[in-house]
Design goal:
This protein is mainly alpha-helical and 59 residues long. Helix content is 64%, strand content 0%. It has 2 helices and no strands. The longest helix is centred in the last third of the chain and has 20 residues. The chain starts with 9 loop residues before the first helix and ends with a helix.
């Protein structure tokens, strides 16, 4: 039976690298010179405002 070699800690480094790349992409300016994260924040705010408006209507 062969001894198995266990690799530890590599997954954490890969996840952190991927997270840094994704955050870097979201921080880059996209359209109109605004970062993508602001477009997503505006989309969430619009959706939340529509949700609040819909639940405030009388039944």
């Amino acid at each position: 039976m062969r001894p198995t070699v266990r690799l530890r800690g590599q997954a954490m480094a890969e996840h952190l690298l991927l997270l840094a790349i994704v955050l870097g992409v979201f921080a880059l300016p996209a359209f109109d010179g605004k970062p993508l994260v602001l477009f997503f924040a505006d989309a969430v705010a619009t959706g939340f405002a529509r949700f609040l408006a819909s639940i405030s209507l009388p039944v």
